[in-house]
Specification:
- The chain is α/β, with parallel strands linked by helices and 184 residues long.
- It is built from six helices and six strands; from the N terminus they run E-H-E-H-E-H-E-H-E-H-E-H.
- The chain has helices spanning 19-26, 43-55, 68-76, 106-111, 139-149, 174-183; strands at 3-8, 31-32, 60-66, 86-90, 126-130, 152-155.
- Helix 2 packs across helix 3.
- The two termini are 15 Å apart.
Length: 184
């Protein structure tokens, strides 16, 4: 049986020089959840798109999510429609507190179903990557999410939000962590 890696971007969807884009190119047969054209801020619409992408894949699936994509995975896991081998959840965004300028407001996120963040134990193994200086998810808040989700916490050091503005592009730890999640 084959394993397919499904990449789940955050609210900004596909970003050309993002670590997920680089990792997807490096993993033959990987799939990325398609960006929404409507209801882009709706958590329910995002979870439905994630569910459709997961159910279009035959064989085992490993999820690699970033930022709000991690929250989509946690929300989907409340009512999973298929088995998932494991998940890498990199730098989850703390949408229960105001995000920096340029991101949706707390009010808009709450109105679109993002708050409160799903905190149920995930029905699959997961590794949550936390940064010591992430402006979108303080380490202690991300560690609390990892604990709630029953996931292993990986301290990535000072990598900010692991996105192009933080200097990532390629992220050397991505592929080894995805392999570790896939191995169980």
């Amino acid at each position: 049986m084959t394993k397919t890696v499904l990449f789940v971007p955050g609210l900004r969807d596909h970003v050309e020089d993002h670590w997920q884009t680089h990792a997807a190119r490096a993993i033959p047969g990987s799939v990325t959840v398609e960006p929404l054209t409507e209801d882009r801020l709706s958590l329910a619409a995002r979870v439905a798109a994630l569910d459709a992408a997961l159910n279009a894949i035959e064989g085992e699936v490993v999820v690699a999510a970033h930022s709000a994509g991690c929250l989509m995975v946690a929300a989907w896991a409340r009512n999973p429609t298929r088995a998932v081998r494991g998940a890498l959840l990199a730098t989850p965004a703390d949408v229960e507190n105001p995000l920096p300028p340029g991101y949706p407001s707390l009010e808009d996120l709450t109105a679109n179903g993002w708050c409160p963040i799903a905190r149920e134990r995930l029905p699959f193994p997961a590794i949550v990557v936390a940064s010591n200086n992430d402006p979108l998810g303080p380490f202690d808040r991300v560690a609390e999410l990892a604990h709630s989700w029953g996931a292993r916490l990986h301290d990535a050091g000072e990598v900010r939000h692991l996105n192009p503005p933080a200097g990532y592009g390629p992220w050397d730890e991505a592929l080894p962590l995805i392999i570790k999640v896939a191995a169980g």
